[in-house]
Amino acid sequence: MKIFCIGRNYVAHAKELGNDVPDEPVIFMKPKSALLQAHTPFYYPEFTNELHYECELVLRICKNGKYIQDRYASKYYDAVTVGIDFTARDIQNELKEKGLPWEKAKSWDNSAVIGKWINMTDIKNKKEIKFNLKKNKEMVQEGNSNQMIFNFDSIVAHISNYFSVNIGDLIFTGTPAGVGECVVGDELEGYMDDAQLFTIEIK
């Protein structure tokens, strides 16, 4: 199982971190060990002093493929949920300044959280999926799939030009503006179209 992640897929988020708006999807990956398993507590990592949440829509791949065309891409994912791409922002900034890869800041164990899966057949309009993140009951991030620079189909097609996609792979599709810091004791809740799909506490 592979975890693909798309960076800078919302204009406002790219700008809030001082990044250029990309002209093609920015791909990075997390290992299987990055996925926080169900009913497993999330612990604040010891190596960072600036842990950030990044709430995202996550796709589940349901069919093996390679060199997928946009018009067929929707056949390769069957469910969506809300997740968090946790980021050690201080570590990421240090690595970016040195022109080094992001893995230590993005891909550590349990850095990827996902919620309950919703079948795509139950989504009325996949082009306008609303989602949000609450921290301690206060909304801190809000997004809509219609704000994406690259939509689901173009993301799947682009990834498949470089990597085979396989059943069970996950794609984190990018975070909207509003990323921020979380600390021990914070409770994070992910919602999609007003349905709560996950809740975790930072321990």
Q: What CATH architecture would you give?
A: Alpha-Beta Complex
Largest sheet: 7 strands, mixed
Categorize the overall geometry: globular
Q: CATH topology, anyone?
A: Fumarylacetoacetate hydrolase, domain 2
What's the pLDDT, averaged over the residues?
A: 94
CATH superfamily: Fumarylacetoacetase-like, C-terminal domain
Number of helices: 4
H/E series? EHEEEEEHHEEEEHEEEE
Structure, briefly:
Helix content is 14%, strand content 33%.
Task: Report what the structure shows.
The chain has helices spanning 11-16, 89-97, 103-106, 152-160, and strands at residues 3-7, 26-30, 51-53, 55-61, 77-85, 87-88, 112-114, 118-119, 130-135, 138-144, 170-172, 180-181, 187-192, 195-201. The chain is α+β, with helices and mostly antiparallel strands and 203 residues long. The protein has one domain (3-38, 46-201): Fumarylacetoacetate hydrolase, domain 2 (Alpha-Beta Complex), CATH 3.90.850. The strands form 3 sheets. Strands 1, 2, 4, 5, 7, 8 and 11 form a 7-stranded mixed beta sheet that branches. The chain has a 4-stranded antiparallel beta sheet with strand order 10-9-13-14, with no helix packed on it. A 3-stranded antiparallel beta sheet has the order 6-3-12. The protein starts with a strand and ends with a strand.
Descriptive keywords:
203 residues, alpha+beta, Fumarylacetoacetate hydrolase, domain 2, 4 helices, 14 strands
Break the fold down into its secondary structure elements and pairings.
Blueprint: E1 3-7, H1 11-16, E2 26-30, E3 51-53, E4 55-61, E5 77-85, E6 87-88, H2 89-97, H3 103-106, E7 112-114, E8 118-119, E9 130-135, E10 138-144, H4 152-160, E11 170-172, E12 180-181, E13 187-192, E14 195-201
Parallel strand pairs: 1-11
Antiparallel strand pairs: 1-2, 3-6, 3-12, 4-5, 4-11, 5-7, 5-8, 9-10, 9-13, 13-14
